[in-house]
Amino acid sequence: MNALLLAGGLGTRLRPLTETLPKPMAPVVNRPWLEHLVERLRDQGIRDIVIAVKHHPDKIRNHFGSGKKWGVNIRYAVEKTLLGTAGAIRNAEPFLDDRFAVFNADIVHDVNIASLVRFHETHGGLVTIGLTEVEDPSHYGAVEQDGEGRILRFVEKPKKEEAPSRRINAGIYVMEKRALAYIPTEREVSIERETFPLLIREGAGVYGTLIPGFWMDMGTRERYRTLHWEILNRKTGIPIPGEERSSGIWVGRNCRIGKGALLIPPVLIGDRAEIGDRSIIGPYAVVGPNCRLGSGVRCSETILWEGCVVRDETHLHQCVIGCGLEIGSRQIMHQAVMNRLGVMEA
Q: What is the mean pLDDT of residues 252-274?
């Protein structure tokens, strides 16, 4: 069984950060999320990986290449036009095994693939959907199932009190290749709104099972920041790089922490970063590799991508600053999201 990672979307809800890179390549605790995902699949025995690419595909191809560095074999299914979730799966058909797993590559999770496959083998249907429970399903498509786990229908954005369950599609599937015959070619197709309902109507067997553990869609700016705070609070097993010098304070290699600087946990300082004298970093701050922060800088609930420069006496709160940006001295920024192509208030 191999795995298909859907990484071709435009990432519009995370703009402007995704103007120049695919959303799954956004850093999560200073490493692209897609890198975390590839390693997690490898560690669970999946070594043959297909990545569906469309938006800035070279950013993914140049980073991973053949996958040899990560101990996997990676191939790429390129979308000439945007094909949607199901269309991207059909487009990857030549690379897929008779049974394969699918992952929306912008979903961050702790999933035991083996348990999902074991459930899939019990029912004989064409598709198993990994499900997660949310407190309020009104923002999603709630799932109605029978006693054996067969999915009867999806109820799109129901009122909380009218939802058939709190279970929603987690964006993780095990599929038989025969299911691809139900997906039209060369046009945009939604697996959630078109393919799964069609398979249900045809009685092809669409089942769902709850996947325990951490799950988060990092697709919005607020969720992207919250994801980091969950990781720093150890709500998930995603590894945090660097040496934990004291509880909740991780510092990378070859860093310089200035005189009188204060790190308030939880905080992560990337490799070769410089923190100026009397700066206060945290709580809830991620400073990327090769960042340089001047003296008297205050940085809280903020994520700095690699190579940022923050000049003296600047205050950042609830911001996300893209790679290589420079913020001048004595600035006060609140909820700013920036990359080289623009600034957006959250």
A: 97
